[in-house]
Amino acid sequence: MKAVYVQESLPTDHQNCFIEGELNTNVPEGRDLFVRIDGISVNPVDCKQRQLIEDRLSEPRILGWDACGEVISVGNDVENYKPGDRVIYAGDITRPGCYAQTQLVDERVVGPKPDKLTEEEAASLPLTSLAAWEGLFDRLKIDRTSTQKQVILIIGGAGGLGSMAVQLARQLSNCTVVATASREESRRWCLKMGAHHVIDHSKDLREQLNQLGFNTVPYILNCSNNAPYWETMSEIISPEGSICLVASTKAKLDLDLFMKKSVQINWELMFTRSLFSTNNMPRQGEVLRHISELVDAGIITHTKTKSAGKISASSIAKAHALVESGRMIGKVTLEGVDV
User: Fold this and answer.
1) Which of 4, 139, 182, 286 could bridge across to 244 with cysteines, CB 3.0–4.6 Å?
2) Residue 78 contacts residue 33 (beta carbons within 8 Å)
């Protein structure tokens, strides 16, 4: 199969940052689907995995964990999909990714493609939809049936994860959604996604929340770096409130800041369930099926804002550079490999 892979950590403007080549095609076994990839999107985790490579790899590594494609064949134990089905998934970070012509993926973390979307649009959904859903409803435990007015602050509301979190919090809960954005175009995007209010994370968050009438907020989903907001979060979180973090950090952060308020600090890693084959791993497939239904019903929308063309070494490098700029609104996507 044709694939785009990495063997060492190089900057995106280096000619060998990504390499195109022919790699072996595997046969599906067990619960695996063999999928022809028609569209992908690039996430910060893709860039991070490339940057974490320390020495030159002895074997090529295919990155990428957001795809839409067609099932070509299935393993003997597959129950829910058949050849010809169109699917979306983020997959498993320990397995070869989607910068390729084909891919193997466990059916338990797969959902059906929304009928209304193109392959690229659909590929913008899986990883951020799962991370947002798990962050809001599994980690923060926002009650979707509650009629009580509550407030959630989503730090970094215009990125891929923030865009989906804003939509799900607005459409599936009774929360007042406050997103953060520092540019006019990102502010407009957050409002388009459904935020009730947008405040500037480059300015005093506490002061801006007070101006909106909120002294504290019971929920915070931080889609950005933790260190710049650590002390501020301790000030604006409500007593017995809950915070969800998604970004790793090497900074030594003072947890005692949250002790007095008995704050819950939660981590969300979308790959946890597949990494450890947890009992609720199939929940990801169920969530993606629900996401597709919500999209087709017009309740939520895709977050594709840029296309980098067809999958190739140069287009993948271009997409990584966009994501690494830290100024992406929504998601950057690509078409399948040009056969």
Assistant:
1) 139
2) yes
- Calculate the CA 207 to chain-centre distance: 30
pLDDT tens digits along 93-126: 999 999 999 999 999 999 999 999 999 999 999 9
207-227 average pLDDT score: 97
Residue 182 sits in which domain range? 129-267
Do 78 and 87 form a contact (C-beta atoms < 8 A)? no
Are residues 76 and 55 part of one domain? yes
Q: What is the CATH number of the domain that holds 223?
A: 3.40.50.720
Q: What is the C-alpha separation between 329 and 307, in angstroms, rounded?
A: 12
Final residue before a domain boundary, out of 267, 297, 324: 267
For 301-312, what is the mean pLDDT?
98
- The helix (run of H) or strand (run of E) holding residue 192 is helix 184-193
pLDDT confidence of 339, banded at 50, 70, 90? low
Calculate the CA dihedral of residues 146, 149, 155, 158 and round it to 10 degrees: 80
Instruction: Name the one residue in this structure whose structure tokens are 């695996």.
Output: 32
d(CA 337, CA 327): 26
**pLDDT at 228 > cutoff 90:** yes
d(CA 127, CA 56): 28
Alpha-carbon gap, residue 152 to 146, rounded angstroms: 14
Structure tokens at 121: 């649009």
Q: How many domains does the chain have?
A: 2
| 117 and 241 housed in the same domain | no
Q: Which amino acid is at 263?
A: V
Q: Is 94 in the same domain as 180?
A: no
